[in-house]
Each structure stands twice: as structure tokens, then as C-alpha cells.
Specification:
three-stranded antiparallel beta sheet; about 30% strand; Alpha-D-Glucose-1,6-Bisphosphate, Chain A, domain 4; 11 helices; alpha+beta
């Protein structure tokens, strides 16, 4: 956690995170215009935030977009801060934003595991229920097939979708329709992409991109990802279950 705390210690870097909290997916040129410092200075701060995992960058044509990654803050909350200041930590990790275009959310986390074991944790329904709020995905994991997401204690299915790409143990792309309430059901179809990249013999970088969300989409659709990914990391690295507000919904 040291790089995260070091990155958050600087007021300029906190201001950059505030800007991405307000409007995600900004370019360097746009961010530079919001600060009274050189382009090089803004780049240096962005690099430190990226090294700490607090932001993720994506190329879109000639532009490089910067996205807020709330997962490290969630890990600080779940593994350390919550013991001392639960209300403060919950408010800090409640990250949301509005864009003037269809929304895209990018989440990145590093996990001490192999790509094969990580893929199994994503696709095995029983393992997935351990960190995904008690929910399981039932499917045959072939391209074009459908899946249903449900939980034993849920009266109706929680979601459904189609497997667009299935490339074990590297990439999984699925459509998603949330069904746990009329408010989220009205949001229609979005897309979730899981990308696994080995970075060492025993470690992986997992990037989850949730896109094709409408402007101002209901936060229930994407707000649970930091808790889900924190629970996934905890289970793979320790074998223990991580108790979060989401895990109490359908887990028991």
C-alpha cells in the first residue's frame, strides 16, 4: 500500500484524482489546462498515480485517456482503514462520475496467482459466488452462448447476457443486463471485458472494463466492481472470504 499512500500525500495528485472523479477519461491536454503548472509537471504527477495503480490509461486513436481506478482505495479500505474509520473509508471509496458521452469504467488490480487459476475463479460458478456477492453465472462458456446470473437466496435472476469472446486464460467479453431491480433493468445492455496479463510466473494484472453504459447510468451497474475485485484478490491470495456490504446481500 506504500505507493498508494505516497501518491495520495501530494495535494496536486489528489486534485488530479478529483478531476477524474468529476469527469473520467480525460486527456493530458485537458488536465493540463486545469492546473497552473507545466505539461511536464502534470505528466510527472500522472505517472506517479499510474505507478500506484490509482489511474489507468487507454489509447483511443491518437488520444491517451486517463481513467480513475478506485480499486486500490477500496483495498486500503478493506484491509486497513475500515478497522479505524469505517464511515470515512466508505465515503472515500464511493467513487462515481458523470460524462458527457457514453460512460466507460476501467478497473485494474494485481493478483498473486496464475492466469489459469484466475480464469477458473472468474468462470467457475461456485468460486465466483465467494466474491461476487453470492451470485453465480451459469453458462457453457462458448462464444455466442447465453448466461444467467443468480443466487440461491435471490427470488429471481440477477442478470443475464451473451458471451461475445471466450479466450482462456486471457480474455472474456460479455454483454450484461442487470435484472435485480426495475431501475437497473431499465438501463438495458452494457458490456464487461475481463483481460488477464501475466506479469511474473506467479502474478497477473487483471483489467475489467465496463463500457457501453449510457450517460448518467445507474451506479448500481458498476459501483460494485471495487468490492468484487477486492474479494477476488483476497480469496485467491489468502483463501479467505472478504466481508463487504455487497457480500451480505445474497451470500448467506
Amino acid at each position: 500500500m506504500d505507493p498508494v499512500f505516497k501518491a495520495l500525500a501530494d495535494p496536486t495528485r489528489r486534485s488530479l484524482l478529483d478531476e477524474l472523479f468529476r469527469e473520467d477519461g480525460q486527456t493530458l491536454s485537458v488536465l493540463e489546462g486545469r492546473f497552473a503548472m507545466s505539461r511536464f509537471g502534470v505528466m510527472r504527477h500522472l505517472r506517479l498515480l499510474e505507478d500506484a495503480g490509482l489511474i489507468v490509461t487507454r489509447r483511443r486513436g491518437r488520444e491517451k485517456l486517463h481513467f480513475l481506478n478506485p480499486v486500490p482505495i477500496r483495498l486500503v479500505h478493506d484491509r486497513w482503514v475500515s478497522k479505524y474509520a469505517e464511515p470515512w473509508a466508505t465515503a472515500l471509496s464511493d467513487l462515481k462520475t458523470r460524462l458527457e458521452r457514453p460512460m466507460e469504467k476501467v478497473f485494474e488490480i494485481y493478483i498473486k496467482t496464475t492466469p489459469e487459476r484466475l480464469w477458473q475463479a472468474i468462470t467457475d460458478p461456485e468460486i465466483r459466488s465467494r466474491y461476487n456477492f453470492g451470485a453465480r453465472q451459469t453458462t457453457d462458456w462458448t462464444v455466442g452462448s447465453t448466461y444467467v446470473m443468480g443466487a440461491p437466496n435471490a427470488p429471481t435472476p440477477l442478470g443475464e447476457g451473451v458471451n461475445l469472446e471466450v479466450d482462456p486464460p486471457r480474455r472474456l467479453v460479455q454483454t450484461m443486463v442487470a435484472l435485480w431491480g426495475d431501475d437497473v433493468k431499465a438501463e438495458g445492455t452494457s458490456r464487461v471485458t475481463w483481460e488477464i496479463e501475466p506479469i511474473a510466473p506467479d502474478s497477473c494484472r487483471l483489467t475489467v472494463t465496463h463500457d457501453q453504459l449510457r450517460e448518467g447510468a445507474n451506479e448500481q451497474l458498476y459501483g460494485g466492481w471495487p468490492m468484487i475485485l477486492s474479494g477476488l484478490k483476497t480469496w485467491l491470495e489468502t483463501g479467505e472470504l472478504l466481508t463487504t456490504p455487497g457480500s451480505l446481500l445474497y451470500g448467506a
